[in-house]
Write a structure and sequence with these properties.
Blueprint: E1 3-4, E2 13-14, E3 17-19, H1 34-49, E4 54-56, H2 65-76, E5 85-90, E6 92-93, E7 105-106, H3 110-124, E8 129-134, H4 143-155, E9 159-165, H5 169-176, E10 183-189, H6 196-199, H7 217-223, E11 227-231, H8 247-256, H9 261-270, E12 277-280, H10 285-292, H11 301-312
Parallel strand pairs: 3-4, 3-12, 4-5, 5-8, 8-9, 9-10, 10-11, 11-12
Antiparallel strand pairs: 1-2, 6-7
Helix pairs in contact: 1-2, 2-3, 3-4, 8-9, 9-10
Length: 317
């Protein structure tokens, strides 16, 4: 599988990452079962067999069980840790956390960032994270506290590099002005269906208003060598079958190239010169294998634009 580099990460990473959001099973505080550990082991090994070496976590995924089950796998195969890149995210707090009656909220305080990261490391059975990402922007963020947390985590060897998720260009620029460590990743919802981050640039000087929340993010990340990771890159399967009018063209193009519809949808992202890294979170090993075929698919510029046109429903402006 083709590889990308991420500043601060020791090894090259696969151009497709595996999203571990669902490998913990249920989103409650029930205990892990032996069956869940076996299922997670099957999924992780399927990803490894495809050449994937970046695994994406967050403290909240399956209420911590996704990290915990991954940690069980590392405990049984400790040599695997040095062969893979692990990232996790923090900053989202559930309702009633830690006390009943508290609202759902974001929390990028020094205390929460440090405590959440240390808890993730404990669950993962790892001494360090290759990457730690701030999961969502916090309107109450005090950049000085984030900077202090990053300094502590980096100097103590607990985190090697830092990133963000769902952040705008301005939010990254503000935060970066306080940090000694560079922001090297921005994970965003991006797919052929949720294409605004890419198609936004085509709307300049056309009279069609761009989406303010996404304006310039992709260009900013390219300019500052921030790797863009795409979450939900397969759009939840909405482009396959009869769920979307684009499905027919996607299927015909897949047949033409002797590949899968999943590979066509991901190859659209991989064709972009920004070096976008899709994070695939399927729990079906067959779909994961189908998605990884995208590494071998080459789209012409005409095919790339045709895919965008059939999804948008209109030609380029």
């Amino acid at each position: 599988m083709k590889e990308y580099s991420i500043s601060g990460v020791d090894q090259a990473v696969s151009c497709i990452g595996y999203g571990c959001m669902q490998i913990g099973g249920s989103w409650d505080r029930s205990a892990l079962t032996a069956e869940r550990v076996r299922t997670a082991d099957l999924l992780v090994n399927a990803a490894l067999e495809q050449g994937i070496n970046l695994f994406d976590h967050a403290d909240i995924y399956c209420v911590g069980k996704s990290e915990k089950v991954f940690g069980e796998l590392l405990k049984s195969s400790p040599s695997l840790r040095s062969q893979i890149t692990i990232q996790s995210k923090c900053g989202i707090r559930f309702k009633d956390d830690p006390d009943p009656g508290l609202p759902a909220r974001y929390d990028l305080s020094y205390e929460h960032i440090v405590q959440s990261t240390e808890q993730s490391l404990h669950r993962l059975n790892s001494d360090y994270l290759d990457l730690m990402l701030l999961h969502r922007p916090d309107p109450l963020m005090e950049p000085e506290q984030v900077a202090a947390a990053f300094d502590h985590l980096h100097s103590s060897g607990k985190v090697r590099a830092f990133g963000v998720s769902n952040h705008s260009a301005a939010q990254i620029a503000l935060l970066q002005s306080y940090l000694d460590q560079p922001i090297v990743v921005n994970q965003l919802e991006l797919s052929l269906l949720s294409h605004d981050l890419i198609s936004d640039g085509m709307l300049v000087n056309t009279g069609v208003p761009a989406t303010a929340a996404v304006t310039g993010i992709l260009d900013y990340c390219r300019l500052h060598e921030i790797r863009v990771q795409a979450w939900s890159p397969l759009a939840g399967g909405k482009l396959f079958g009869n769920q979307h009018s684009a499905g027919t063209y996607i299927k015909s193009l897949a047949n033409e190239k002797s590949t899968s519809p999943e590979a066509i949808v991901l190859s659209w992202l991989l064709r972009h010169p920004a070096g976008i890294q899709p994070i695939v979170g399927t729990t079906q090993t067959q779909r994961l294998a189908a998605a990884c075929e995208s590494d071998q698919v080459e789209l012409s510029p005409e095919q790339w634009y045709q895919l965008l046109e059939v999804v948008r429903g209109v030609p380029v402006p």
